[in-house]
What does this fold into?
Amino acid sequence: MTSWTKRATTLGTIGIIGLLCTFSGTAIATNSEPGTVPTQVATHASPSSIWDAAINGDSGALDSLLSPTNWDETTLDADLFASIELLSSNIVKRETTRDEQITDANTRLLEHLETYEETQSGIQLSKALAAAVELQMLFNNDDKFFVDASVSKAIFVSVQAARVAEDSGDWMIASELYYRLNAIHDPSGIYKKDVKRLSRRLAMIRMYAPERLWEIRNQRRIDEEMDPLPPYNAYGDDFHEKLKGINSITVRTAIQRSADQHVGRKTRKHPAGVSMNDLILSGLAAIETMTTTTDLAVAFDGLEKETNRNKFLDVIQAQKTKIESKEHTASGYDLRRSLDAVLVAGHNLVGIQESALLHEFGNGAMSALDDYTAIIWPDELARFRRSTQGEFIGIGVQIQLDEFQNIKIVTPLEGTPAQRAGVQSDDIIKKIDGITAVGLGLNQAVDIITGPANTKVNITVEREAEAGEIVEKEFTIIRQKIDLPSVKGWSKTGSGDQDWNYFIDQDAGIGYLRLTGFTQDSTKEFDLAIKAMKDEGLNALILDLRYNPGGLLDQAVNLASRFVPSGMIVKTVDGTGVTNSIDDAKHVSARQSVANIPVVVPVNEGSASASEILSGAIQASAHQGKTQALVLGHRSFGKGSVQNVYLLPGGSAAMKVTTNYYKIDAPRMIHKVPGATQWGIDPDLVVDMLPSQQADALLLRRSADVLPLDENGEIIVDAERPDPNTLLTDGTDLQVQTALVLLQSQTTVDNTKTTMMD
It folds into this structure.
């Protein structure tokens, strides 16, 4: 059997010439040396040979087998031949579009660079760098990308301009430039600290001086000749309310627990790990950033006085020097002394209240560890619980900002208080409890609309009636618990959570499930969907895990047990490599199991955490010959770490700390540790989608999943709604389309061998 590291296959330009690579640098096989001749296809092959080539990593054979010119359509199943032909033409279309977009992005890069040289406009340079990022994704070949003269110039100029922008207080431009520089140079991470610092500055302005952030964003739109933002709305945006319940004990407890439990902490076996010294220094650095973010003077007027600012910075530096000069690891006592010194000086010299200093010191200290260890502050706790429990208290609507920055109802969820009250898709929320909603951000709106169960909220909406007339309607809605389903099918058939057509190919019995997260009900929802499909003749399955951010570990293990008949699912290891626990495949009934049918699992850069455990466990089982499965798409995100969650003293805040790494039955970790060149789940078959295709597929999928309802919860039959099948016919979603062809090759009745044409 082919080894783990050599199984990845790249789907090239099918239907053109198998020996040629495209301009984008798409390889025929990721393990092929330059000039390697693709494997010759046997004279006699069957449809199942397509699947075999994919799982064996034989890229040359796969390219030939997926070229319609190599088949005699009189002997190949007509439906499969049509699918291969459509896939081939859509890949040719992708490469044509790629070349056009490379030309366009390169033209824009040159134009923005030229305009920048004339105007020294940071906006023009940011746009130039954005075009460079786009080029990098389109090239799909960093060797070609970094030797491009225009790209090199854009990077060099942007590095200098980002420093100047930050020094002059232009946080927005500095943040954009560093963010794009970091994207270009990932995974080296050389600009990651800059991105964190600028992000922290803007987050502080958002917290303490939100109107000032509105002014910055609004001016940016005006400078770009865009429509200005709606007037700033301060409703629900008072930082004093958000900081209630924060005290020194809360923050010190979180930092001490992280120093004691974090997987990367300093130990005798791991002397290079993060120590309490590092946490204190990182917290002090955050307060230093806060002090030098002059826009915060609108909230803390003491920051306006340069003399006082400098005195406070001297106090911070003195504390940093004490910690840096310590011969031994700092203790909780040192943490308390440094924090107390900052709290007293910050209040006396620049007038920053204690809870704000604690908030920023805590954020800064935790950032020294990893991106997932954090304090969950009082104003964030409800959102955090919603993300893990799959339920929240609210009225049951999906909302978004439209092009005019209005809060628009995407859809009321079926059976929820909003739907029963008569709220409809496309309603514009104008008031909440009688106060204008114009200018609110989405998080503001969600925080205001949600609240304790069985309490009332008044929503005023504008609705377009017949003949274009705009009418205003007011609803009094009682908040209730809202369940958020995480398992979706191919096309919506009704307003209920389980009203799906789960088959992407009904005749062949090929099902499609999209898992949007891992909540406490995910396994139950999955089993119900599988039962429904098995009742109609399920022969194969696409399990779409793209853009799945993860969730509950037990749900990932339970779901993996549906695909993996036996063996290890996942284990957790600490920073020294010691195994702490093992989760094996659990026994499941025949009605739940899909281990006996072929499965394709699409993943991409948005597949993280629990979705990486699930896809990795399925892949490992397939590589061991236990199941018929392959992973397809792009390498996953690389978030393979365990966070323990604790309530902090007082109960109004919590914390999460990374204590272990996940490992599946494979040679390397999932987690993307600093400096790593390998991480995540590498697909068996790499299928490229252009950035524009990814965006178009997401938008179409979101719109297709919404069934417009009237005030009685009935489907509006003649409402315009996209057909998800166009994702395949138009070649928008090549990853799902390829998965479908692979499974069709397995489900095609094959009593005799099919002859390949010479």
User: Anything to note?
Assistant: Residues 78-119 form the longest helix (42 residues). Confidence is low (pLDDT under 50) at residues 1-42, 750-758. DSSP finds 24 helices and 25 strands in the chain.
